[in-house]
Amino acid sequence: MKKIVTLYITVxxxxxxxxxxxxxxxATNAQIVNAIDLGMSNLASQQTxxxxxxxxxxxxxxxxxxxxxxxxxxxxxGSNAAAYQGVVDAGMNYLLNSATxxxxxxxxxxxxxxxxxxxxxVYWDGNGEATYTTGLVASAIGxxxxxxxxxxxxxxxxxxxxxxxxxxxxxxxxxAAGQSTASSGDRRGGWxxxxxxxxxxxxxxxxxxxxxxxxxxxxxxxxAFVKSELKYWLAAVQDPNGGAHYQPSGxxxxxxxNSDTGSLLVGLKFVGTAKTDPAxxxxxxxxxxxxxDLANNDWxxxxxxxxxxxxxxxxxxxxxxxxxxxxxxxxxxxxxANWWQDYNEWLVNNQNGNGSWSGYGNWxxxxxxxxxxxxxxxxxxxxxPTGTPEPATMLLLGLGLMGLAGVRRKxxx
Length: 413
Fold this sequence. Notes:
The chain is mainly alpha-helical. The chain is built from 13 helices and six strands. The radius of gyration is 20 Å and the shape is globular.
């Protein structure tokens, strides 16, 4: 793919300058726009002829991540707009044609997951890890279909003649039905690799939550009981030190890390917990303490660990916004104005010459690049029913609309 022409980069630098106070600039605007341009070019070069991206058997998840990354940066497509539109159209066509449709039923706790009068469930199997995969795909769909929710998405395949809203409702129905219930003990309220297994972990749960956030932006309805039940899970996994465990008990209890704490904050935001709530404040304090941790031991750490960085980015964007400089103060580079610029500085300085980011552990290659593009582009997640971001970040929509996070080539611990 050809690079965005110099004139376009110059124009977008000016737009970016308008969207950020001078005091917030860390990596220069030119460096940020160039990093995004190079990252998109690298991703486009790896798409297969069938429209998908390959990632060790997790092609649906990888394709969802790639399509979502492109959509977050649509305002920067520039002279590549036609080519990149073809890239995302082919990727979305692959996803729509590889979906699974079923009928969901009443849960074992008597809650009825059927939303808006339909019991149709929609998900992407993801090589047996449907929660992660569907989360990435739902995030991509939420961006791709924005402004066209009532349109028919496709006239062929398993989702033939369904509107984007109906697809979104089907995804939410699937997660509402597959949420772990009180019969699962301390796994109650969360999700595991595949919905309906009556097991849960913090890493996977964030993808069900993100799916429903994006589904809501397309007009889907989340049953009230889903949020009520999710509160049990969020309380169970939070440690007294503020961080979140992967699971509240059992062999994985010892895992207490940045990515799971980011997942906790996303969930707390979804259920309507105020920023001033002690649980939120404790989680933010944990992230501040561990902010400078480097990637280590596969899933631990922050900088250099694309899964953790994206989880924390989503959590902090939703909880604080992109310009907050009073909460995360234990910065890797103390010359930076705030947490997001600290991430940007690191990403600009650690991008490979071919536009990719190397990643770490199970999150490497195109997946790392797709994740990191969301961060450097300042993705805004549509948490409100209308999908409207907070005013402080409104102007940043020129640099992207949402980030996703999460595949593991056995996705998580």
